[in-house]
Amino acid sequence: MGTTVYERAAPAPEVVRHALAGAQARAFWLDDVVIERHPTLESRVEADLVVVGGGYTGLWTAIKAKERDPERSVVLLEAQRVGWAASGRNGGFCEASLTHGEENGRRRWPEEYDTLDHLGLENLDAIESTLERYAMKVDAERTGLLKVAVEEHEVPWLRERSHHDGATYLDREAVQAEIASPRYLAGCWERDTNLLIHPAKLVAELGRVATDLGVEIFEHAAVEALTTTADRVRLSTAVTEVSARQVVLATNVFPSLLRRNRLMTVPVYDYVLATEPLSEAQLRSIGWSNRQGVSDLANQFHYYRPTTDGRIVFGGYDAVYHTGRRVRARYEDRPATFERLASHFFTLFPQLEGTRFSHRWSGAIDTCTQFCAFFGTARRGKIAYAAGFTGLGVAATHFAADVMLDLLAGEPTRRTSLEMVRKRPLPFPPEPLASAGINLARWSMDRADHNQGRRNLVLRAMDAVGLGFDS
Hints:
Blueprint: H1 5-8, H2 13-20, H3 28-31, E1 45-52, H4 56-68, E2 74-77, E3 93-95, H5 102-108, H6 113-133, E4 145-149, H7 155-161, E5 167-170, H8 172-178, E6 186-190, E7 194-196, H9 199-212, E8 216-218, E9 223-228, E10 233-237, E11 241-249, E12 266-275, H10 280-286, E13 293-296, E14 302-306, E15 312-321, H11 335-348, E16 357-367, E17 374-378, E18 383-387, H12 396-409, H13 419-422, H14 433-449, H15 457-464
Parallel strand pairs: 1-2, 1-11, 2-8, 4-13, 11-18
Antiparallel strand pairs: 3-7, 4-6, 5-6, 9-10, 10-11, 12-15, 12-16, 13-14, 14-15, 17-18
């Protein structure tokens, strides 16, 4: 078994220790913006539509519901604070792909992938248009995505990717002219497929637009149970009850209020670092004048991007599942993972040794077995849901909002006719099989990254039955 560049060119341990000393254990994005607080729910409420969940999925759905019908009364219930979970902690990559990348999409839906690809780009254009229409200040930059090869066997993969429209292959000299990492062997710049945003500013602006349109948002209003009657859905909280004609469930990584979906997702923890603002000299040493989002090609991949105030946000690689499907604050502090990330950062950018990280944080991703969102309805069409976004969900939540509102309207559309929308993925098995399978898959992915990307029998078997695991 071979070694990776991150092992062959690792920095000295003291470089990592120095960089992490004093890093604050909280998400940089949430530290960088004030998100408006919303009232708590104290008395019984009735509405035409109740949205459960105050992240991107729920906020987009509430906004779109009011845009479709301004007279419809819409209430959004959030168990904690709006945007406190994945929507305020992600890397700020708003990628066009609805299918967690082309390979996953083509493998699962080969007949309709070209349609899904087109819809993804159309969806990203619509997001950009909405940001402009409502003057949403979210630090948006449509700079595209730079895929980089750091191992020799990855270079042919990039040559293949460059055959697509809007993609440019960059040899070693050209990619290092874009971003000065001595580890880059080649690159592929997809110029139109990614919009960088400030995650927490997007939450704040979505909340502003929603309330401006007349959506009532309540925080600290955890829904504990759903009951249905002939024409209503009743949502019970610890304090009171909300009655609705229709409901959207946008709880993503958290346990579903529908029993049928309890085994459909698992929470996988992702880890991120943010540097202090770099000096002018440091910025010149890496270039990056075109400010692309960057990702590598390993099974356990990294993603990183610049911020508007001169930082680098660097995350990925470890994707950690904890037995029992639980979301716990104590899972967010994982020193070994932060040390590994810091080591990989300085492997890529040795000229930045001496830089400190200001923030370290983590969050849970809702992963399903098809690695992109699944959809459905329940209770005779009164409830719609979407979950399972698996890390590339920022743009997909906008698409999901339209899908769920289409489903509630009962009207066939181009979106609801998709096999990806109509067909449910396989559930994860119950414990202890889920933990054993996920950890075996992660071990196998690590072996593949150490063996020129070759997938072993475990990964090939999981691919064959639709359970292929992707970090």
